[in-house]
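Why do we bother with a discrete structure alphabet at all? Because it lets us treat a fold like text: something you can write down, compare, and reason about line by line. To make this less abstract, here is a complete entry for Blr3769 protein. Read it the way you would read a sentence in a foreign language you are learning: slowly, and without expecting to understand everything at once.
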Amino acid sequence: MSMSAASDEHTTRTKGTTGQMAGGDPRLDRLVHRLPPRVGDTVTYLLKPSSRWVRIPSGALLVVGGVLSILPVLGIWMLPLGLALLAEDVPALRSSRSKVFDWIERRKPQWLEPSASKNDQS
């Protein structure tokens, strides 16, 4: 069995009860689960291992859009989303993402709680 197949099998087994696993961090999964359904589905797709060739350009474009946030339509919200997507493939960003999640757990734990609207729909 190849490394990729073993990784996919591990991800499939560790999905849990929600039926999805955004990246490899359960905290990221909880944040994605709070997004509106259409956006959450898109981010979940981008975080799949098989979506790497879509994820890297999407993350780079979001970072550029965040840097150009002074222009209409683009916004600073694009920067952290782009960095989070790129963190799946860049180990240096992955450790920074983990530190951000640690900060969120300490300072904003309500961000990691399930949203009421999603619980009503399930």
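What the structure line is telling us, in plain words: The chain has seven helices and no strands. The mean pLDDT is 76.
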